Every structure is written in structure tokens, then in C-alpha cells.
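Predict the holo structure. Ligand: NAP.
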Amino acid sequence: MASSNILILLDTDEQANSFDRVVAVDAGVDQLFAYSRVTLEQVQSLVHGAIFTRAPDELRHTAMFICGSDVDLGEQVLARVRSSFLGSLSVSVMLDANGANTTAAAAVIAAGRHLEFDHCSALVLAGTGPVGQRAARLLARQGASIRLASRSDQRASASADRINAAVKPPQEVVPCVITDEDALRRGLEGVDVVIAAGKAGVELLPASVMNEVTDLKVAIDLNAVPPLGIEAIGVTDKARDIGAVKAYGAIGVGGTKMKIHRAAVASLFESNDRVLDAEEIYALGGSI
Ligand SMILES: NC(=O)c1ccc[n+]([C@@H]2O[C@H](COP(=O)([O-])OP(=O)(O)OC[C@H]3O[C@@H](n4cnc5c(N)ncnc54)[C@H](OP(=O)(O)O)[C@@H]3O)[C@@H](O)[C@H]2O)c1
């Protein structure tokens, strides 16, 4: 009898979220074990429960999914999961804390439908959050030059340094402080693509400023909660033309995000050694 596919959700939040469980079922998972309030100290025993229970050639039918709203903690859980494997005794694992990896991958894939990244300049507004940092990292890895914006010089520099340390030269993410419309205009000068990755319900780019920009080719807003991040973009826009700009709203990007999420979960059961973080999820999304 073939083993059933089991997905073990490690959620660091108080209550295991319903979103990732629904997607897991839609991705074809047979059995779902959801753990909430997962701490680093608990990870090893959960991993041992996954790797010691089935024959080595059946381990591809068990996988782990790390979620929860704290993306930094999610990254630490991923590192702990990996360090708890014993050689080839491992299961595939995916990190999508706060939906950051699948959302950033979907945004960059949307932009890539209209641009060659190695000749492109990008501005990531509020790029200090988990989604913005990952979008900036993915764009930098594709060869784009990036301005990473924040209201704070210190936060912009810290995020840019973190990405520059992860991405090999010559790409460089440049911090950019935006606290008013003049700074926003300067940040947008010569930019081909803007991604607004601000907190839900915060407008970052008014229509009056976007209308003045001449070089922009793609604008993507990931905030679905009014007021939206880019005023001129509707939440369901998907490659809508606003003058010369292709516009995407959060729900316009969300369809791709959901497809990537389902495909990534399904792919976990193809082998017992996959590790899906932002880059792997982006690569997988590009093949859908
Ligand atoms: N479609 C989807 O499936 C999906 C999934 C996940 C997330 N999202 C959306 O993607 C966006 C980014 O998510 P996230 O979790 O990375 O966001 P986040 O951490 O909540 O916020 C991102 C950044 O927004 C800036 N910010 C916070 N409050 C602000 C304010 N009052 N005014 C101006 N800027 C402010 C901060 O940057 P500075 O303080 O450095 O300026 C912060 O680092 C959100 O809108 C979220 O709802 C969508």
C-alpha cells in the first residue's frame, strides 16, 4: 500500500493558521498535522518523529511546512529543522512564514513578464518588511539594481546590508530613505519597476506622484487593505495598463501566489530532501 502524504505544519503563532491548512488540502495532502506555538526547543523531537517513522525510501511522503507571522523566527525554525536531520534521514521542508516567500515570488514573477531584470532598476517601497526584503533579494539575484526604501535610514541600511551579504556582487541593494513626496520622486527617478510592500492599509505612492513618473514600466502593490499602497492601482488589477505602466494589485498578484503555494507544497512529496525558501519557491513559480 502506498504511503499517504503527510504534511506537518510548524506554526510559531498562538493558533495554527487556517490559510496554510486549506492550501495544503487543495495541494493534495492526505494528512495534515498542525502544531501551534512551536518553539525552537521543540523542533528536534518533531523532526525525529518525521524521520524515524517511515522507511528511508518512504520519507518523501512526509514533509514539513514552517509558518506563522514571525518571519525571523520561521527562519530560525527552518535552520533548526535542517540541523535536526541525520544525513539522508530527512524530509522536505518549506518556509512560508507570513506568506512572505510565495508573495514575493509572485510579485517578482509578475514584474518579469514585462521586464528583463538584468537591465532594470527597481524601487521596493517599505522594503524592510519580510515581503519587501524577499522581493528585493529575488530581484537582486536576477540582476536588477535595487533601491530599498524605508522611512528610516537605519532600517533601510540594515535590510540592504542583509541582502547584499546574501547576494553576490556586482549587484548592490542601495538603501533609500523616503519620508516625503520629494524623496519619493527622487526614489522613482529612472526606475523601471516599483513594488509597494508596505504594511496593510498604508498608502505609499499617491496617484499624483505616479502620474509624473516617465520611466516606470511596471507597478505592483501588495497591500490589499484600503487605503491601498499605490493609489492608482485597483486591488484586482492584473497587468492593467495605466498609461505606459503595467499595474498589478494585491489580488491580481494573489492568484499567482496561490498557484505557487499549491505547487510548492505538492513538490515537497517528490523527494525527501527539498528545502524551499524564497529562491527555490521563485524558481518553481517560474516553471508553472
Ligand atoms: N497577497 C498576499 O497573499 C500577501 C501575503 C503576505 C503579505 N501581503 C501584504 O504584503 C505587504 C507587505 O507585508 P509585510 O508582512 O512585509 O509588511 P509589514 O512588515 O507589516 O510592513 C512592511 C513595512 O511597512 C512599513 N510601514 C509600517 N507602518 C507604516 C506606516 N504607518 N507608514 C508607512 N510605512 C509603514 C515599514 O517599513 P519602515 O518602517 O522601514 O518604513 C514595514 O517594514 C502587506 O501589505 C501585506 O498585507 C500580502
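Residues 103-254 form a domain with the Rossmann fold fold (CATH 3.40.50.720). The pocket of NAP is lined by residues 98-99, 103, 126, 128-132, 150-152, 155, 197-200, 202, 222-224, 250, 254, 257 (CB under 6 Å).
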